[in-house]
Amino acid sequence: MAQAQTPSAIAAPRSPYARRKTTRGNFELYSWVFMRASGVVLLVLVFGHLFVNLMVGEGVHAIDFAFVGGKWSSPFWQVWDLLMLWLAMFHGTNGVRTVVNDYAQRDSTRGVLKSLLYLASAIVVILGTLVIFTFNPCPPGAPAELLPSICFPN
Amino acid sequence: MWSWVAHRVTGVLIFFFLLVHILDTALVRVSPEAYNAVIGTYQTPIMGLGEAGLVAAIVFHAFNGVRVILVDFWAKGPKYQKAMLWIVVGLFVVTMAGFLPRHLMNVFGGGH
């Protein structure tokens, strides 16, 4: 008796397949596409970053305030690093979101972990963006020997 | 399956390093002294080995990521997924063979 109340729930035999209208949007599809698209761009950005900062010249030993200041005096590296910051953070946050969804079984655990993840990511992306845009390679009052050469035009 | 596990593990590792790395770089906005003090700790031998591990994780994640893309979008990708894993391993070895000597020389050799 109970089954007879919902006859439309099961399609008639051999009726053509009709995709049910999605009710939750296509977010996961877009996220899947984004991971692949951003991954390809990040491969270039991150390998370039590692090569210039670790392989050229004295490598990691050459990195100091003057090195960063010299790089960010050029719009090229500002755009490079800004793009890398945004793509890497969204790619990484989305990846960790997937991992949390896979392993945190309780709804409350998943909610807390993802809230922390989004909060940390938002803080870091906003902070990083502000730093790139408001950075002054020649801060007044700083010791001259710590500053990049562009602070001393002849 | 193990390449999938390694992709996850390296991805999560890289993400947490990225959080720290953006915070330490943000110190350039505080003062040259603050940035130099913190970045100086990246230039010790122990951190140098950590950087080698980080680069290894990034190189694997990058090459395996290309393999994942090919499996997903290239019609013959699934058929050659195992061969492509060996290509990933080969490219990883070649890249690290190029990177490690130079980096370790910078960390343990001359420098200041």
From TrEMBL, chain A:
GO terms for cellular component: membrane. GO terms for molecular function: metal ion binding. The chain crosses the membrane at residues 29-56, 76-96, 116-135. Keywords: Heme, Iron, Membrane, Metal-binding, Transmembrane, Transmembrane helix. It is found in: Membrane. This is Succinate dehydrogenase / fumarate reductase membrane anchor subunit. It comes from the Bacteria. The keyword Membrane applies. It comes from Krasilnikoviella flava.
